[in-house]
Structures are given as structure tokens and as C-alpha cells.
């Protein structure tokens, strides 16, 4: 994910050097391991462990905002724990920004130039945008991990899941599909939809009912008790579009109401 964020940053801004890394460990002080380099001519920065408040990245993470210096090794506003590596790579102007998810710094991204100049606003905006993109991807990834853990806990139970547990499965199914709609990455979207499919009963090859993905999305929201207006808001479509998908699904399922459609979809293996 850090590599993808750096790629986006360089593509948008054209900055010659970008690097970054994720948080090291799960407990204690937040430290970052620089794992990804883009445009670097040496490996001097690779593997550096960025301590809290140390250097530009450690300070940016502690303050929770983007910081920039015109000449890294000469700056009086930061500590100089990493000057040897920065000097070895030939970097002068450097900017850093933390990737913060729910109040916790999860990664730090850098943009750098080989000249001692002020880093332009376009590069700073691009750096912040890359951090926000990564933040959104981490939110989705965290939610997927949480839902998978929930499902694994139910699957490991020795007895049949309770009604409450089945409702948790159905909620997870609906929310995974909604997360897929918001995912920028086609690969991540496909992965989320694939996980949601695992929550539904297996469908036989001869099954005659084949709902479209959007019809499943609408019915999964309807199964949670959402009205048309709420479904439209969640899916980002108009209320009339929701009605159209509902009518289409009801025809395919031979149902006369949304409640019948949800039940028929479950019996057909389209919904958990």
C-alpha cells in the first residue's frame, strides 16, 4: 500500500524521490520502518527505523501534520539522527506526512528533491492527497480484517450459530458489498466482493436465479430493514433506481414483496 501511495504521489507531482514505510510493531511508541523507495539511487534509506520525534518524519508523525524543510541536513527545526542516510542519497529539500487512521499514525510518506529549495504547494498537496488515499485504503482493509475475524469466530463455533450471529453475518455481507462500491482499486473491489460471496450459501451450478451484483446489493440492504431512501443513500443512486432493481429482483425470484424477495434470495443462495 505504501508503494502504491508513492506511485500516485510521483505520478501526480513528478517529484524525483519518494519513500516511506509503515508502523513497526503494534504496541509501545509509534515507530516506522522505511520499506519503500521510489526514484532513489542508493539503498541508504531502506530499512531505517524512524523513532518518535526523530528527524522530519518522526516529528511530522508526532504532530500529525505535513512538515517540510528546505535543506534537511542544515535545518535547525528537526533532529539529525538520519543525516548520514539522507546525505548519502543526496537529498536536500524534504517533506513528510503521516498517514493517520482513527487518531493513530500508521505510516509516514516522504517527498524529496536534490536541491535546497522550497518544496512547492503542488508537491505538498500531492503528498497529503497520497496520505489521505492510503488512509481510506487502510480503513477498508481494517474493516475487512474485522469482518473476517468475526466470520472465522462463527465458523469455529462447535454449534449452529445463533440468530444474533446470523444477523451479524448478514450485516457483514451487506457492509462488505458497500465497502466494495467505495474502493478505488479494482483488485480490492473484486477481493471484497469475493469475501462477501463466501458468506452466502453455496449455489448449485443448476441454480436458475441469477441476480446481478447491484440487485444483490439492494436486497442485502433491504434485508437489514433499510427503506428505499436509505438504500439509495448507501449505494449512491436515486430512489427510482433502487425501485427498478427491486422490481427486477422480485420478478426473477417470483416474489410479490421485498420481504418475499429477501427470503427467496436466501433460499436461492444469493444472500446469507
From TrEMBL:
Pfam families assigned to the protein according to its UniProt record, in alphabetical order: GerE
Keyword Chaperone: no
Keyword Transcription among UniProt keywords: yes
Keyword terms of this UniProt record: DNA-binding, Transcription, Transcription regulation
CDD domains for this protein: LuxR_C_like
Domain HTH luxR-type: start-end pairs: 204-269
Name this polypeptide is given: Helix-turn-helix transcriptional regulator
Source lineage: Bacteria, Bacillati, Actinomycetota, Actinomycetes, Streptosporangiales
